[in-house]
Specification:
Blueprint: E1 2-5, E2 17-21, E3 24-28, H1 36-42, E4 56-58, H2 64-67, H3 70-75, E5 82-83, H4 86-105, H5 108-114, H6 128-135, E6 148-151, E7 154-160, E8 168-176, E9 179-185, E10 208-212, H7 223-240, E11 243-247, H8 253-266, E12 276-279, H9 281-292, H10 299-306, E13 317-319, H11 323-327, E14 336-340, H12 350-357, E15 364-367, H13 376-381, E16 386-389, E17 392-395, E18 399-402, H14 412-420, E19 427-431, H15 435-447, E20 453-454, E21 461-463
Parallel strand pairs: 3-4, 4-5, 9-10, 10-19, 11-14, 11-15, 12-13, 12-14, 15-18, 19-20
Antiparallel strand pairs: 1-2, 1-21, 2-3, 6-7, 7-8, 8-9, 16-17
Helix pairs in contact: 4-6, 4-9
Bound molecules: zinc ion (2 copies).
């Protein structure tokens, strides 16, 4: 049995791992490399295996760095089944349509029509037609904790990872006479107390663990403190008579914010009657998916659904689907709260609102997520004094705030706790992290008794020894 690492090896994005069990080849995630044009070009390089040799794909969750190259795999000849939880299937469809749409924008013929063709690069790993072909390959949805049979003697079990709706750690179990080997892929792990979801619940016993380490070297700022900080910005901006602009990721972060706003409204902690706009068709669609799966949400949200209350809605909230609706926000009065994409101000409707408010010192621009190098969000955060939006130069006089405690990822303490809930495996592979994070977490883990820790290189293949079925593990010291 061989395991190879074709993405998120010594970097964060592009998750893609191949488990070969006597020729039955399971691909765990098929993610996109993200972060600038050069990283995007990595998506057009060969996978490191023949796409038509893959027997099945297992998806841990719907983020682009885990599902974003799946249509490219299909375009290159993969035609087997795709296994995922039901929310992951629906969220992937939204996320992949959006990704294909963005790539089609960069096609030479489309670009020429609009006079915007940038010969750079982003054309084109796949098109919308490939996404449609991909969605047809999703088979009956997996439920948490219930094994799904992939092939004779090979099962996959999905366990809640607490990261985004439907996210899973997946354990592959290979059963042979007298032998049983379990390989656990963490997927992305959520924080110890996710805002909307139940915390991660991994299986107790695995022989091999492949584990993410995005924040393996740091602790997040307290979630409650961050909420208070946001509430303060909303109140201050309201009393100054300005708008609050929040560049928002469509999956999870937008729903987190709607939930907080509703909570504060019902507790009487959020002043005023100004409108709240969710100005992102993608975030609106994602919110409907969250509403469709209340049983997968944290107890306090489920309780509200049981009382026929929607924990994401309140009377002042308006969903803006069309561009025409979006443009009416500018005339909605001096006070309003606007959630719009993209989350890093690198495109989307937030640009229009920023152009309107950039020179207004009474308004606030609030970053609630990571701003990558090379994005406009990062440049503004680092103090750029003017921005050029849609051809017009604007001074940046809007109030700037960065609130960092809303991560959907586990921090170092959460990752160690996740490990502490399991028996020590035979071997662990650390992936999905930058160099500093990988080496820092490796040291931490070794100190807790997980001795056989390996950081694989891109395209490295390791041999996994099969285990006798009566193995008993020992519990790690915390
Ligand atoms: Zn993720
Ligand atoms: Zn990820």
């Amino acid at each position: 049995m061989q395991l190879s690492f074709h993405g998120a090896a010594s970097c964060v994005t592009g998750s893609c791992h191949l488990l070969d069990v006597d020729g039955f080849r399971i691909l765990i995630d098929c993610g996109m490399f993200q972060g600038g044009d050069e990283m995007f070009r990595s998506n057009l390089k060969p996978f490191g295996f023949a796409p038509d040799s893959i027997s099945a794909v297992v998806l841990t969750h719907a983020h682009l760095d885990h599902c974003g190259r799946l249509p490219y795999l299909v375009r290159q000849g993969f035609s087997g089944p795709v296994y995922a939880t039901s929310p992951t299937r629906y969220l992937s469809e939204i996320v992949l349509w959006d990704a294909a749409h963005l790539q089609e924008e960069h096609l030479p013929e489309k670009g020429r029509q609009k006079g915007t063709h940038r010969p750079s690069s982003r054309s084109t790993a796949y098109r919308i037609a490939d996404v449609i072909d991909t969605m047809a390959l999703f088979v009956r949805a997996a439920e948490y904790d219930v094994p799904v049979n992939l092939a004779p003697g090979i099962d996959a079990t999905f366990y809640n990872a607490g990261h985004i709706l439907g996210s899973a750690s997946v354990q592959i179990t290979v059963s042979r006479p007298g032998r049983k080997t379990r390989i656990l892929f963490s997927g992305d792990l959520g924080p110890g107390q996710p805002a909307l979801l139940a915390p991660a619940s991994p299986p107790e016993d695995s022989d091999y663990v492949v584990m993410e380490t995005t924040y393996g070297d740091r602790l997040h700022r307290s979630f409650e403190e961050s909420k208070e900080e946001l509430l303060e910005v909303l109140s201050d901006t309201y009393s100054r008579g300005g708008k609050v602009l929040i560049p928002t990721f469509a999956v999870e972060r937008a729903q987190d914010l709607l939930f907080f706003f509703r909570e504060w409204k019902s507790e009487g902690r959020l002043p005023g009657r100004q409108p709240y706009f969710l100005d992102s068709p993608m975030a609106i669609n994602v919110t409907h998916i969250y509403e469709r799966f209340p049983m997968l949400l944290a107890d306090r949200l489920l309780e509200q659904f049981k009382k026929r209350k929607d924990p994401f809605l309140f009377p002042e909230l308006k969903f803006m689907r069309t561009v025409d609706e979006s443009r009416t926000i500018a005339g909605a009065g001096p006070r309003a709260v606007v959630l719009a994409g993209s989350g890093m101000v690198s495109g989307g409707r937030i640009l229009y609102h920023l152009a309107q408010e950039a020179e207004n010192p009474r308004s606030s621009l609030v970053f609630v997520g990571y701003q990558a190098e090379g994005t406009l969000g990062r440049a503004i955060l680092e103090g750029r004094k003017t921005v050029r939006i849609q051809g017009v130069e604007k001074d940046v006089r809007i109030g700037l705030h960065s609130i960092n405690g809303f991560s959907a990822h586990a921090d170092q303490a959460d990752l160690l706790k996740w490990c502490g809930s399991m028996k020590v495996p035979e071997r662990v592979f650390l992936i999905h992290g930058e160099h500093r994070s990988l080496s820092s977490f490796r040291e931490k883990l070794e100190n807790t008794g997980w001795k056989n820790v390996h950081v694989p290189a891109l395209h490295e293949t390791v041999e996994l020894t099969e285990k006798m079925s009566s193995r008993t593990g020992r519990v790690a010291k915390r």
